[in-house]
Specification:
The chain is of the alpha+beta class and 545 residues long. The chain has 11 helices and 37 strands. Strands 16, 20, 21, 22, 24, 26 and 27 form a 7-stranded antiparallel beta sheet that branches. A hairpin with a 6-residue loop joins strand 20 and strand 21. About 6% of the residues have low confidence.
């Protein structure tokens, strides 16, 4: 059977073609019901009206969202509240009563609880970033029923898209330069009609793991290069071509830049940075096993100079001039956002999260044990820091935690440096991890188990050649505690069940080949990260809105 739908948002059709906004299409009943139910389309012929009137409400137990098309409540067969307007930050929603008159209050979804928004009792409501999980009107009075009622209106979904981005982890000394030009590669994981970016003027220093201000106020210009190699379009801040970012701050979101990016589209962000006191950048730490952060083979680049560096922010292609950072220096935005309904993921953790021992062995642009599993399906904001630990994150993480406003779900990979480096017990680490999970009460947070850390006499070709360190008992206790649901809400991604030779062994998986799973005993190789990704231990189905 087929039905007709009219698109209220551009989306991919059953055959993979784009269904354009405002156009009407004939689709299967199942696909049409899904599109109408998610409010991506309207029911052109009204074929869904009878079942929706009879049973208009269904509940997503994970997020507490009301799903279905049209109103979420039927009063005596009628529709007490209708909401018009476009979900999105700054957009106005309007509640109305087609069968009478009434009054409303507006509610925001926090965790799984709809919570009143203080002072919001008008029929119109202007959306803000905090409304990302959901916002809705609730009738406080309705004339056909006389007395006050509590009929909720349709849920309005507001999501934020995060591209493949990395937070700056180290900064150069003030004498290294005052101007830089960067080109970073990203991929859209949802079809969007506009984008905004935020740029950091802060870093997480390796010397003390604290979020530290940049060298002084920085003036930045930026553009999106899309299609790559063809066109660059400026981002603006309050209609100006540049913005000044105070030291230690993240820039305001740029103005909305209207641009149609289809799902999976690759694009480049170009940033021209000037600061008289010096630059900040993301660098490959010393030690030999850390990844080269700049994927120059696929067009990323970073150049810098004391003066005279050409501003090619509106150019296309490779950046040049000054001193090249090569593969070891990168700079990019710390958030790329747009209004979508798809899940987005925040990733926090240490060097395993940043991708130590990983490499750009494929074209995804993803690095690290978590991002490789997330990247094929969802946008994410990655704020991992090598050698970091849960206690260090608690001590200094304000700016990184602020970035989590742009995601719907979070994955925490912290733990191994607390156990090995700091010698913390399960009880101590459990308290810290619970504190971190508690920072995000309005988002589902997952905890990963800890992959092994061993030495080897045969380059990790066999389990017999591996030796566990003095921390082995603590390691075993931590993984057992995490697996038993001892952190946060008990959501666990048991990545160690893939990396270990056997669950609970504390030894790396082997296949007889030297350095198959690890080449230093502490970090996953490209092959191991791909194995974890392909195992499905971090399934896309876990993230729903």
């Amino acid at each position: 059977m087929t039905m007709r739908i009219t698109m209220t948002q551009a989306r991919l059709g059953e055959a993979g073609a784009v269904l354009a906004l405002g156009q009407t299409y004939t689709v299967s009943d199942a696909f049409g019901a899904e599109m109408v139910g998610k409010r991506f389309a309207s029911d052109t012929d009204g074929v869904l009206l009878p079942p929706q009137t009879a049973n208009p409400v269904s509940s997503d137990p994970q997020r507490g969202l009301v799903v279905g098309s049209g109103s979420s409540v039927s009063g005596g067969g009628g529709t007490p509240i209708v909401v018009t307007g476009t979900p999105g930050v700054g957009n106005v929603l309007t509640a109305s009563f087609p069968m009478g008159t009434g009054a409303v209050k507006w509610q925001r979804l926090i965790g799984s609880t709809w919570t009143d928004i203080a002072g919001e009792t008008a029929l119109t409501y202007t959306q803000v970033v905090a409304d990302a999980p959901g916002v809705r009107p609730v009738a406080t009075a309705y004339t056909p029923f006389g007395a006050a009622t509590t009929f909720p209106g349709p849920s309005v979904y507001l999501g934020n898209f995060a591209g493949q981005v990395l937070t700056m982890t180290d900064r150069a000394g003030s004498g290294s330069g005052t101007q830089s030009m960067s080109r970073s590669r990203h991929r859209a994981r949802a079809a969007v009609s506009f984008v905004q970016i935020a740029i950091p003027n802060w870093v997480v220093l390796h010397s003390n793991f604290t979020e530290t201000a940049g060298n002084g106020p920085a003036t930045v210009e930026a553009a999106i290069e899309y299609p790559i190699g063809t066109t660059s379009t400026r981002f603006k801040w309050s209609t100006a071509n540049s913005t000044v970012i105070p030291a230690g701050e993240t820039s305001a979101l740029s103005d909305k830049l209207a641009i149609a990016l289809p799902k999976n589209a690759e694009f480049m962000i170009r940033i021209y940075w000037t600061c008289p006191n010096g630059l900040i950048w993301q660098s490959s730490p010393s030690g030999g096993f850390y990844p080269l952060v700049n994927d120059t083979a696929r067009g990323e680049g970073y150049v810098y100079a004391v003066s005279g560096l050409a501003n090619t922010v509106t150019g296309v292609g490779a950046v040049s001039g000054g001193t090249s950072g090569g593969d070891g220096i990168r700079f990019g935005p710390c958030a790329i956002v747009s209004d979508i309904v798809e899940p987005t993921i925040g990733i926090i953790g240490d060097s395993r999260t940043t991708g130590a021992s990983d490499s750009y062995g494929d074209a995804t642009g993803d690095l690290g044990v978590v991002a490789r599993s997330i990247g094929p399906n969802f946008g994410y904001i990655h704020v991992g820091k090598h050698s970091d630990g849960a206690d260090k994150f608690i001590a200094s993480s304000t700016r990184r935690r602020e970035l989590m406003q742009y995601v719907s779900h979070i994955i925490c990979e912290y733990g191994i440096n607390d156990v090995v480096g700091a010698g913390r017990t399960w009880t101590q680490l459990q308290a810290s991890l619970n504190t971190i999970h508690g920072y995000f009460p309005d988002k589902p947070v997952w905890q990963t188990t800890l992959n092994p850390w061993t030495t080897s006499s045969d380059s990790w070709a066999t389990t017999a050649g591996q030796t566990k360190g003095a921390w082995a008992t603590r390691y075993d206790e931590v993984n057992a505690g995490i697996r038993a649901g001892g952190v946060g809400a008990g959501r666990v991604f048991d990545i160690a069940s893939i990396a270990e030779s056997a669950i609970g062994s504390g030894l790396w998986r082997v296949n007889g080949t030297a350095n198959y799973a690890t080449n230093d005993g502490a970090h996953e190789t490209f092959a191991m990260n791909i194995l974890i990704k392909n195992s499905g231990i971090i399934p896309a189905s876990a993230f729903t809105r």
